[in-house]
Protein backbone atom coordinates (compact mmCIF):
# COMPACT_ATOMS: atom_id res chain seq x y z
CA UNK A 1 0.00 0.00 0.00
CA UNK A 2 1.40 3.31 -1.02
CA UNK A 3 0.89 6.40 1.00
CA UNK A 4 -1.08 8.62 -1.32
CA UNK A 5 -3.80 11.11 -0.80
CA UNK A 6 -6.23 8.72 -2.41
CA UNK A 7 -5.89 6.42 0.56
CA UNK A 8 -7.10 9.06 2.93
CA UNK A 9 -10.54 10.15 3.79
CA UNK A 10 -11.16 13.48 2.15
CA UNK A 11 -12.25 15.90 4.81
CA UNK A 12 -11.08 19.01 6.48
CA UNK A 13 -8.29 17.96 8.73
CA UNK A 14 -8.01 20.43 11.53
CA UNK A 15 -4.61 20.78 13.08
CA UNK A 16 -4.72 19.42 16.60
CA UNK A 17 -2.70 21.36 19.11
CA UNK A 18 -0.32 19.01 20.80
CA UNK A 19 1.82 19.65 23.78
CA UNK A 20 5.30 18.60 22.86
CA UNK A 21 7.13 19.60 25.96
CA UNK A 22 8.53 16.38 27.33
CA UNK A 23 7.19 15.21 30.65
CA UNK A 24 10.00 13.18 32.14
CA UNK A 25 8.83 10.25 34.20
CA UNK A 26 5.24 11.08 33.50
CA UNK A 27 4.26 7.80 35.07
CA UNK A 28 4.21 5.96 38.32
CA UNK A 29 7.47 5.64 40.17
CA UNK A 30 7.18 2.89 42.75
CA UNK A 31 8.48 3.31 46.29
CA UNK A 32 11.56 1.31 45.41
CA UNK A 33 12.64 3.66 42.63
CA UNK A 34 11.33 1.59 39.72
CA UNK A 35 9.38 3.29 36.97
CA UNK A 36 6.35 1.19 36.24
CA UNK A 37 5.47 0.49 32.66
CA UNK A 38 2.27 -1.42 32.03
CA UNK A 39 1.38 -2.90 28.69
CA UNK A 40 -2.36 -2.37 28.44
CA UNK A 41 -5.05 -2.01 25.83
CA UNK A 42 -6.42 1.47 25.57
CA UNK A 43 -8.37 3.80 23.36
CA UNK A 44 -6.73 6.67 21.56
CA UNK A 45 -7.70 9.00 18.81
CA UNK A 46 -5.15 8.58 16.03
CA UNK A 47 -7.37 9.52 13.14
CA UNK A 48 -8.85 12.96 12.47
CA UNK A 49 -12.35 14.15 11.89
CA UNK A 50 -15.25 12.34 13.47
CA UNK A 51 -13.50 8.98 13.54
CA UNK A 52 -13.89 7.23 16.89
CA UNK A 53 -10.92 6.31 19.05
CA UNK A 54 -8.89 3.28 18.03
CA UNK A 55 -8.09 0.36 20.28
CA UNK A 56 -4.32 0.24 20.68
CA UNK A 57 -1.86 -1.68 22.79
CA UNK A 58 0.05 0.87 24.80
CA UNK A 59 2.51 1.49 27.57
CA UNK A 60 0.65 3.19 30.42
CA UNK A 61 -2.34 4.03 28.26
CA UNK A 62 -0.68 6.04 25.51
CA UNK A 63 1.13 5.50 22.23
CA UNK A 64 3.92 6.49 22.20
CA UNK A 65 4.47 5.36 25.77
CA UNK A 66 5.83 7.84 28.30
CA UNK A 67 9.09 9.51 27.46
CA UNK A 68 11.81 8.18 29.70
CA UNK A 69 14.43 10.86 30.24
CA UNK A 70 17.60 10.14 32.11
CA UNK A 71 21.10 11.54 32.31
CA UNK A 72 24.03 9.83 30.66
CA UNK A 73 25.60 7.27 32.99
CA UNK A 74 22.47 6.95 35.08
CA UNK A 75 20.81 3.70 36.04
CA UNK A 76 17.38 3.07 34.56
CA UNK A 77 15.02 0.92 36.61
CA UNK A 78 11.81 -0.16 34.98
CA UNK A 79 9.26 -2.63 36.25
CA UNK A 80 7.45 -3.98 33.23
CA UNK A 81 3.96 -5.27 34.01
CA UNK A 82 2.24 -7.20 31.27
CA UNK A 83 -1.51 -6.71 31.30
CA UNK A 84 -2.04 -7.89 27.76
CA UNK A 85 -3.36 -11.27 26.73
CA UNK A 86 -0.11 -12.35 25.12
CA UNK A 87 3.51 -12.53 26.31
CA UNK A 88 5.76 -9.52 25.74
CA UNK A 89 9.11 -7.98 26.64
CA UNK A 90 10.77 -4.59 26.24
CA UNK A 91 13.87 -3.92 24.15
CA UNK A 92 15.86 -0.72 24.65
CA UNK A 93 16.79 0.10 21.09
CA UNK A 94 20.26 1.50 20.54
CA UNK A 95 21.36 1.28 24.15
CA UNK A 96 24.71 -0.47 24.58
CA UNK A 97 23.25 -2.47 27.38
CA UNK A 98 23.95 -5.40 29.67
CA UNK A 99 22.89 -8.41 27.56
CA UNK A 100 20.51 -9.80 30.18
CA UNK A 101 18.51 -6.55 29.97
CA UNK A 102 18.27 -6.41 26.17
CA UNK A 103 14.70 -7.64 26.28
CA UNK A 104 14.74 -10.06 23.35
CA UNK A 105 12.13 -12.76 23.94
CA UNK A 106 13.56 -16.14 23.15
CA UNK A 107 17.19 -15.03 23.20
CA UNK A 108 18.02 -12.95 26.26
CA UNK A 109 14.91 -13.63 28.34
CA UNK A 110 11.66 -15.55 28.44
CA UNK A 111 8.75 -13.46 27.24
CA UNK A 112 6.83 -12.03 30.19
CA UNK A 113 3.50 -13.84 30.44
CA UNK A 114 0.17 -12.08 30.86
CA UNK A 115 -0.18 -10.92 34.44
CA UNK A 116 3.54 -11.26 35.12
CA UNK A 117 6.30 -8.72 35.47
CA UNK A 118 9.99 -8.24 34.77
CA UNK A 119 12.45 -5.78 36.21
CA UNK A 120 14.86 -4.07 33.86
CA UNK A 121 17.85 -2.36 35.36
CA UNK A 122 20.69 -0.97 33.30
CA UNK A 123 23.10 1.92 32.90
CA UNK A 124 22.91 4.19 29.84
CA UNK A 125 26.45 4.74 28.55
CA UNK A 126 25.64 7.09 25.65
CA UNK A 127 23.76 10.37 25.53
CA UNK A 128 21.27 10.70 22.69
CA UNK A 129 17.92 9.71 21.24
CA UNK A 130 16.84 6.11 21.73
CA UNK A 131 13.57 4.27 22.04
CA UNK A 132 12.00 1.24 23.58
CA UNK A 133 9.57 -1.22 22.08
CA UNK A 134 8.04 -4.64 22.45
CA UNK A 135 10.32 -7.46 21.34
CA UNK A 136 7.99 -10.42 21.16
CA UNK A 137 6.02 -10.74 17.94
CA UNK A 138 7.15 -7.18 17.30
CA UNK A 139 5.43 -7.14 13.91
CA UNK A 140 2.15 -7.32 15.81
CA UNK A 141 2.92 -5.57 19.08
CA UNK A 142 4.82 -2.56 17.74
CA UNK A 143 2.22 -2.05 15.01
CA UNK A 144 -0.43 -1.81 17.74
CA UNK A 145 1.42 0.89 19.67
CA UNK A 146 3.93 -0.70 22.05
CA UNK A 147 6.81 1.77 21.83
CA UNK A 148 8.09 4.93 23.47
CA UNK A 149 11.03 7.36 23.44
CA UNK A 150 14.08 6.97 25.68
CA UNK A 151 16.10 10.16 25.85
CA UNK A 152 19.52 10.18 27.45
CA UNK A 153 20.56 13.72 28.28
CA UNK A 154 24.09 15.00 28.05
CA UNK A 155 25.69 15.65 31.44
CA UNK A 156 26.38 19.25 30.36
CA UNK A 157 23.90 21.98 29.40
CA UNK A 158 22.59 21.81 25.83
CA UNK A 159 19.14 22.62 24.46
CA UNK A 160 16.68 23.44 27.23
CA UNK A 161 13.31 21.68 27.46
CA UNK A 162 11.57 24.30 25.35
CA UNK A 163 14.02 23.77 22.49
CA UNK A 164 14.33 20.00 22.70
CA UNK A 165 11.39 18.23 21.09
CA UNK A 166 10.84 14.54 20.57
CA UNK A 167 8.82 13.59 17.48
CA UNK A 168 7.83 9.94 17.31
CA UNK A 169 6.56 9.15 13.83
CA UNK A 170 4.35 6.15 13.15
CA UNK A 171 2.30 4.91 10.24
CA UNK A 172 -0.86 2.99 11.01
CA UNK A 173 -2.93 0.87 8.75
CA UNK A 174 -6.44 1.96 9.49
CA UNK A 175 -9.85 1.63 7.95
CA UNK A 176 -12.20 4.52 7.21
CA UNK A 177 -13.20 4.68 10.84
CA UNK A 178 -9.66 4.94 12.04
CA UNK A 179 -9.68 1.39 13.43
CA UNK A 180 -6.61 -0.76 13.02
CA UNK A 181 -7.02 -3.02 10.03
CA UNK A 182 -7.19 -6.30 11.92
CA UNK A 183 -7.53 -8.60 8.97
CA UNK A 184 -4.21 -7.66 7.50
CA UNK A 185 -2.09 -8.41 10.56
CA UNK A 186 0.35 -11.09 9.52
CA UNK A 187 -0.66 -10.88 5.84
CA UNK A 188 1.52 -13.03 3.62
CA UNK A 189 1.59 -10.22 1.08
CA UNK A 190 3.28 -7.90 3.58
CA UNK A 191 5.69 -10.49 4.88
CA UNK A 192 6.96 -11.38 1.42
CA UNK A 193 7.01 -7.81 0.09
CA UNK A 194 7.74 -4.50 1.77
CA UNK A 195 6.24 -5.22 5.19
CA UNK A 196 3.14 -3.71 6.80
CA UNK A 197 2.93 -0.19 5.46
CA UNK A 198 0.37 2.09 7.01
CA UNK A 199 -1.94 4.57 5.36
CA UNK A 200 -2.03 7.16 8.12
CA UNK A 201 0.85 8.96 9.81
CA UNK A 202 0.89 10.33 13.33
CA UNK A 203 3.43 12.32 15.29
CA UNK A 204 3.51 11.61 19.02
CA UNK A 205 0.26 9.73 18.55
CA UNK A 206 -1.60 12.71 17.12
CA UNK A 207 -2.87 13.54 13.64
CA UNK A 208 -1.40 16.56 11.91
CA UNK A 209 -0.12 18.33 15.00
CA UNK A 210 0.79 21.98 14.80
CA UNK A 211 4.00 22.74 16.60
CA UNK A 212 4.82 26.30 17.47
CA UNK A 213 8.44 27.43 17.25
CA UNK A 214 10.01 30.83 17.79
CA UNK A 215 11.87 32.53 14.99
CA UNK A 216 15.64 32.76 15.33
CA UNK A 217 15.92 30.20 18.12
CA UNK A 218 17.80 26.93 17.80
CA UNK A 219 15.76 23.75 18.22
CA UNK A 220 16.75 20.13 18.52
CA UNK A 221 14.10 17.97 16.92
CA UNK A 222 14.54 14.31 17.82
CA UNK A 223 12.84 12.29 15.12
CA UNK A 224 12.17 8.62 15.82
CA UNK A 225 10.80 6.36 13.09
CA UNK A 226 8.73 3.68 14.81
CA UNK A 227 6.95 2.49 11.68
CA UNK A 228 6.93 -1.26 11.23
CA UNK A 229 8.38 -1.07 7.75
CA UNK A 230 8.03 2.36 6.22
CA UNK A 231 11.12 4.20 5.09
CA UNK A 232 10.07 7.82 5.54
CA UNK A 233 11.24 9.94 2.66
CA UNK A 234 11.88 13.54 3.62
CA UNK A 235 13.61 16.62 2.34
CA UNK A 236 15.73 18.05 5.14
CA UNK A 237 16.61 21.13 3.12
CA UNK A 238 12.99 22.09 2.84
CA UNK A 239 13.01 22.13 6.64
CA UNK A 240 16.21 24.14 6.65
CA UNK A 241 17.54 21.43 8.94
CA UNK A 242 21.03 20.20 9.70
CA UNK A 243 21.75 16.82 11.23
CA UNK A 244 23.07 16.85 14.78
CA UNK A 245 23.07 13.09 15.34
CA UNK A 246 22.17 9.77 13.77
CA UNK A 247 20.82 6.97 15.94
CA UNK A 248 21.70 8.92 19.07
CA UNK A 249 25.34 9.51 18.15
CA UNK A 250 26.32 13.13 17.46
CA UNK A 251 28.26 14.16 14.36
CA UNK A 252 31.36 16.29 14.84
CA UNK A 253 29.55 19.26 13.30
CA UNK A 254 25.90 19.80 12.43
CA UNK A 255 25.72 18.59 8.84
CA UNK A 256 23.71 19.67 5.82
CA UNK A 257 22.21 16.73 3.95
CA UNK A 258 22.36 18.03 0.42
CA UNK A 259 20.60 15.14 -1.27
CA UNK A 260 16.88 14.55 -1.32
CA UNK A 261 14.96 12.65 -0.38
CA UNK A 262 16.68 11.67 2.81
CA UNK A 263 15.55 8.10 3.51
CA UNK A 264 14.76 7.66 7.18
CA UNK A 265 14.49 3.95 7.91
CA UNK A 266 12.38 2.10 10.44
CA UNK A 267 13.94 2.26 13.94
CA UNK A 268 16.38 4.99 12.96
CA UNK A 269 16.60 8.29 14.77
CA UNK A 270 17.82 11.58 13.45
CA UNK A 271 18.35 14.67 15.60
CA UNK A 272 17.83 17.82 13.59
CA UNK A 273 18.98 21.34 14.24
CA UNK A 274 16.37 23.81 13.07
CA UNK A 275 16.47 27.59 13.37
CA UNK A 276 13.13 28.80 12.03
CA UNK A 277 12.95 32.04 10.13
CA UNK A 278 10.42 34.72 10.78
CA UNK A 279 7.08 33.99 9.18
CA UNK A 280 8.36 30.84 7.46
CA UNK A 281 6.37 27.87 8.63
CA UNK A 282 7.20 24.43 7.35
CA UNK A 283 5.91 20.88 7.45
CA UNK A 284 7.13 17.35 7.83
CA UNK A 285 6.18 15.69 4.58
CA UNK A 286 6.22 12.11 3.40
CA UNK A 287 7.58 12.12 -0.13
CA UNK A 288 7.15 8.51 -1.20
CA UNK A 289 3.67 9.02 -2.63
CA UNK A 290 2.56 10.72 -5.81
CA UNK A 291 2.37 14.06 -4.03
CA UNK A 292 4.03 15.19 -0.80
CA UNK A 293 1.94 14.28 2.22
CA UNK A 294 2.33 16.66 5.17
CA UNK A 295 1.85 15.09 8.60
CA UNK A 296 3.04 17.77 11.01
CA UNK A 297 3.06 21.54 10.69
CA UNK A 298 5.46 23.96 12.28
CA UNK A 299 4.23 27.46 12.86
CA UNK A 300 6.82 30.13 13.44
CA UNK A 301 6.13 33.06 15.72
CA UNK A 302 8.11 36.11 16.80
CA UNK A 303 10.68 38.14 14.96
CA UNK A 304 13.85 36.33 15.92
CA UNK A 305 15.21 39.32 17.78
CA UNK A 306 17.27 37.51 20.37
CA UNK A 307 19.40 34.89 18.70
CA UNK A 308 20.25 31.77 20.64
CA UNK A 309 23.62 30.10 20.51
CA UNK A 310 23.85 26.56 19.18
CA UNK A 311 24.97 24.11 21.83
CA UNK A 312 27.45 21.54 20.59
CA UNK A 313 27.25 17.83 21.37
CA UNK A 314 30.25 15.76 22.36
CA UNK A 315 30.80 12.30 20.92
CA UNK A 316 30.09 9.27 23.06
CA UNK A 317 32.98 6.98 23.91
CA UNK A 318 32.47 4.16 21.44
CA UNK A 319 35.58 2.07 20.80
CA UNK A 320 37.13 2.64 17.35
CA UNK A 321 37.36 -0.43 15.10
CA UNK A 322 40.85 -1.77 14.38
CA UNK A 323 40.36 -2.62 10.72
CA UNK A 324 43.77 -4.27 10.31
CA UNK A 325 43.01 -6.94 12.85
CA UNK A 326 39.33 -7.40 12.11
CA UNK A 327 37.55 -10.68 11.60
CA UNK A 328 35.43 -10.72 8.46
CA UNK A 329 31.93 -12.10 8.03
CA UNK A 330 29.53 -12.15 5.16
CA UNK A 331 25.75 -12.02 5.32
CA UNK A 332 24.02 -13.09 2.15
CA UNK A 333 20.46 -11.79 2.21
CA UNK A 334 17.99 -13.60 -0.01
CA UNK A 335 14.28 -14.15 -0.57
CA UNK A 336 11.15 -12.06 -0.85
CA UNK A 337 8.91 -11.44 -3.81
CA UNK A 338 10.75 -11.15 -7.13
CA UNK A 339 13.84 -12.57 -5.50
CA UNK A 340 15.41 -15.95 -5.20
CA UNK A 341 15.84 -17.69 -1.92
CA UNK A 342 17.68 -20.91 -2.70
CA UNK A 343 18.02 -23.53 0.01
CA UNK A 344 16.56 -22.48 3.35
CA UNK A 345 16.97 -24.09 6.71
CA UNK A 346 14.44 -23.26 9.37
CA UNK A 347 14.68 -24.75 12.86
CA UNK A 348 17.30 -27.14 11.55
CA UNK A 349 15.21 -28.51 8.67
CA UNK A 350 15.35 -27.65 5.01
CA UNK A 351 12.15 -26.04 3.75
CA UNK A 352 10.53 -27.52 0.66
CA UNK A 353 7.62 -26.43 -1.54
CA UNK A 354 4.63 -25.67 0.63
CA UNK A 355 6.77 -25.27 3.76
CA UNK A 356 7.50 -21.67 2.85
CA UNK A 357 3.86 -20.63 2.99
CA UNK A 358 3.13 -22.74 6.03
CA UNK A 359 6.03 -21.32 8.06
CA UNK A 360 5.87 -17.88 6.40
CA UNK A 361 9.64 -17.91 6.10
CA UNK A 362 10.18 -15.93 2.92
CA UNK A 363 13.65 -14.55 3.58
CA UNK A 364 16.97 -15.94 4.72
CA UNK A 365 20.43 -14.93 5.88
CA UNK A 366 23.12 -17.30 4.60
CA UNK A 367 20.37 -19.84 3.81
CA UNK A 368 19.01 -19.82 7.35
CA UNK A 369 15.62 -18.37 8.18
CA UNK A 370 15.27 -16.96 11.67
CA UNK A 371 17.10 -17.99 14.84
CA UNK A 372 19.03 -21.21 14.81
CA UNK A 373 21.04 -22.94 17.51
CA UNK A 374 24.35 -21.75 16.18
CA UNK A 375 25.22 -18.07 15.90
CA UNK A 376 26.02 -16.30 12.64
CA UNK A 377 29.49 -15.78 14.16
CA UNK A 378 31.29 -15.63 17.48
CA UNK A 379 33.71 -12.90 18.50
CA UNK A 380 35.97 -12.39 21.42
CA UNK A 381 35.47 -9.36 23.61
CA UNK A 382 37.39 -6.47 22.07
CA UNK A 383 37.59 -8.01 18.61
CA UNK A 384 36.85 -5.80 15.62
CA UNK A 385 34.23 -7.34 13.38
CA UNK A 386 33.61 -6.43 9.76
CA UNK A 387 30.35 -7.63 8.26
CA UNK A 388 29.65 -7.52 4.56
CA UNK A 389 25.93 -7.43 3.82
CA UNK A 390 25.00 -8.58 0.35
CA UNK A 391 21.40 -7.69 -0.32
CA UNK A 392 20.43 -10.20 -2.97
CA UNK A 393 16.76 -9.19 -2.84
CA UNK A 394 14.52 -6.73 -4.66
CA UNK A 395 13.74 -4.74 -1.49
CA UNK A 396 15.52 -2.30 0.80
CA UNK A 397 16.12 -3.42 4.37
CA UNK A 398 16.84 -1.69 7.66
CA UNK A 399 19.57 -3.72 9.29
CA UNK A 400 19.90 -3.43 13.05
CA UNK A 401 22.66 -4.70 15.31
CA UNK A 402 21.82 -5.11 18.99
CA UNK A 403 24.12 -3.96 21.78
CA UNK A 404 26.63 -2.15 19.54
CA UNK A 405 26.93 0.87 17.32
CA UNK A 406 28.86 0.43 14.07
CA UNK A 407 30.39 2.49 11.30
CA UNK A 408 29.65 2.01 7.63
CA UNK A 409 32.95 1.40 5.86
CA UNK A 410 31.56 1.42 2.37
CA UNK A 411 28.26 1.29 0.66
CA UNK A 412 28.21 0.34 -2.98
CA UNK A 413 27.45 3.27 -5.32
CA UNK A 414 27.05 5.75 -2.52
CA UNK A 415 29.03 8.36 -0.66
CA UNK A 416 26.54 9.31 1.96
CA UNK A 417 28.45 7.83 4.89
CA UNK A 418 31.41 10.13 4.62
CA UNK A 419 32.89 10.70 8.04
CA UNK A 420 31.61 7.29 9.08
CA UNK A 421 28.91 8.26 11.53
CA UNK A 422 27.95 5.74 14.18
CA UNK A 423 24.67 3.95 13.65
CA UNK A 424 22.71 1.09 15.10
CA UNK A 425 20.45 0.65 12.08
CA UNK A 426 21.30 1.21 8.41
CA UNK A 427 19.37 1.03 5.19
CA UNK A 428 20.62 -1.21 2.44
CA UNK A 429 19.15 -0.82 -1.04
CA UNK A 430 18.02 -3.62 -3.34
CA UNK A 431 21.02 -5.60 -4.67
CA UNK A 432 23.38 -3.32 -2.77
CA UNK A 433 26.43 -4.44 -0.80
CA UNK A 434 27.50 -2.62 2.35
CA UNK A 435 30.31 -3.23 4.83
CA UNK A 436 30.14 -2.22 8.45
CA UNK A 437 32.61 -2.45 11.32
CA UNK A 438 32.41 -2.37 15.09
CA UNK A 439 34.24 -3.56 18.15
CA UNK A 440 32.42 -6.47 19.75
CA UNK A 441 32.98 -5.24 23.27
CA UNK A 442 29.80 -6.38 24.96
CA UNK A 443 29.53 -10.01 26.05
CA UNK A 444 26.38 -11.95 25.34
CA UNK A 445 24.00 -13.08 22.64
CA UNK A 446 23.06 -10.26 20.29
CA UNK A 447 20.38 -10.12 17.68
CA UNK A 448 21.04 -8.88 14.16
CA UNK A 449 17.93 -8.40 12.07
CA UNK A 450 16.01 -6.40 9.56
CA UNK A 451 13.93 -3.81 11.42
CA UNK A 452 11.18 -4.08 8.87
CA UNK A 453 9.37 -6.12 11.43
CA UNK A 454 7.57 -8.42 8.99
CA UNK A 455 10.90 -9.26 7.36
CA UNK A 456 12.41 -10.02 10.75
CA UNK A 457 9.55 -12.42 11.52
CA UNK A 458 9.68 -13.93 8.04
CA UNK A 459 13.31 -15.01 8.31
CA UNK A 460 15.58 -11.95 8.44
CA UNK A 461 16.79 -12.53 11.97
CA UNK A 462 20.05 -13.98 13.19
CA UNK A 463 22.33 -13.57 16.19
CA UNK A 464 25.99 -13.44 17.13
CA UNK A 465 27.86 -14.23 20.26
CA UNK A 466 30.50 -12.21 22.08
CA UNK A 467 32.54 -14.03 24.71
CU1 LIG B 1 14.52 -2.18 17.75
CU2 LIG B 1 15.61 -6.08 17.70
O1 LIG B 1 15.04 -4.12 17.72
CU1 LIG C 1 13.93 -6.21 5.49
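^ Assign residues to that structure.
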Amino acid sequence: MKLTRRNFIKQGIGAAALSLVPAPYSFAMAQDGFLEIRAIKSEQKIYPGDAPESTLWTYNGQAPGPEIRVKQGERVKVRFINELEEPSSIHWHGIRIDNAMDGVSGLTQEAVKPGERFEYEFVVPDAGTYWYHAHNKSWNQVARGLYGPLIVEEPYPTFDAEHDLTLVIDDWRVDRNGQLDEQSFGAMMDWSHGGRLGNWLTVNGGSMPEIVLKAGEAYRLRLINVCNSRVLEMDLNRLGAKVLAFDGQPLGQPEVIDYSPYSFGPAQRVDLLVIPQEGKGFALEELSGDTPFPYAHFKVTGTGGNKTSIPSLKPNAIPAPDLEKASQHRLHMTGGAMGRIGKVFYKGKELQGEDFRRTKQFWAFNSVANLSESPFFSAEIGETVIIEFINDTAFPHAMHVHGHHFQILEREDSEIDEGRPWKDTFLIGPTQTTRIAFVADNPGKWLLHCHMLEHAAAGMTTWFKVT
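DSSP finds four helices and 34 strands in the chain.
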